[in-house]
Write a structure and sequence with these properties.
Elements lengths: L5 H7 L6 H6 L4 H6 L9 H22 L5 H11 L2 H11 L9 H5 L6 H18 L2 H13 L3 H6 L6 H13 L4 E8 L6 E8 L2 E8 L2 H12 L7
Antiparallel strand pairs: 1-2, 2-3
Helix pairs in contact: 4-8, 4-9, 6-8, 8-9, 11-12
């Protein structure tokens, strides 16, 4: 092994049977450009596996703990906890950046603090734990180091809701009706269409959003609408 991972194993309460598997977690593809004879590949395959395992863990956790939520809520909660920023924060909390194997160029470019690299590393670690131990151990790891103190807070405070969902919930709760969205303008070539969308309540424009898809334009319109709620 290139690194000494004993402190990390103790911190996450996982004793790896396959040392190479744990080392593989930290090999960024850039490292291989300068180490052609490496006996291990990059962590990309482990990251791919970890992403799938994390998705299943999150689904099982939500299914068990929050039985009264709607399917749409599950999807939004899942997106809010498995996003790059959350995974990178979890990786940072465990000090995974200390173990990363990077090229000199990536190192100089701030690779150890790169959120995408850290998030991928965290998912690779999930994949490695799943392969080396079992699903239950991976479930325990994710529950402890990603969900704890975060997921319950997100659910209880409805922080998972998109701006569009929050706007609808507010207006529906107060006025027993829902806002409507209208495409105000479409322009640009077919492969790079730009949409300008407005959100309305009782024919009053509350906000406008511009994006490369109707869905994102609607979300931006909803975000902008919150500044104009006093008008309705």
């Amino acid at each position: 092994m290139i690194g000494n991972y004993k402190a990390l194993e103790k911190k996450i309460n996982v004793n790896f049977q396959d040392d190479n598997l744990l080392e593989n977690v930290f090999i960024h593809r850039s490292y291989l450009n300068e180490h052609k004879n490496s006996h291990l590949p990059s962590n990309e395959r482990l990251e791919f596996l970890g992403d799938s395992v994390l998705s299943l863990i999150t689904s099982v956790y939500l299914f068990k703990k929050y039985q009264k939520l709607a399917e749409g809520d599950y999807t939004e909660i899942k997106s809010s906890i498995v996003k790059t920023e959350s995974l990178a924060d979890a990786a940072d909390g465990l000090g995974l950046n200390e173990y990363l194997l990077l090229s000199h160029g990536e190192e100089k470019g701030g690779g150890r603090d790169n959120k995408n690299i850290l998030a991928d590393c965290f998912e690779a670690l999930i994949g490695a734990i799943f392969l080396d131990q079992n699903f239950e151990k991976a479930y325990q790891f994710v529950s402890e180091f990603l969900f704890k103190g975060k997921l319950d807070y997100i659910v209880e405070n409805k922080l998972y809701l998109s701006a569009k969902s929050k706007l609808q919930e507010y207006i529906q709760g107060k006025y027993k009706t829902i806002p409507t969205y209208k495409v105000l303008e479409e322009k640009g070539p077919e492969h790079k269409r730009v949409f300008r969308v407005g959100v309305f309540f009782k024919n009053k424009a509350l906000g406008v959003g511009i994006a490369l898809s109707k869905k994102h334009a609607e979300e931006k319109a909803a975000q902008n609408a919150f500044a104009n709620l006093e008008k309705i």
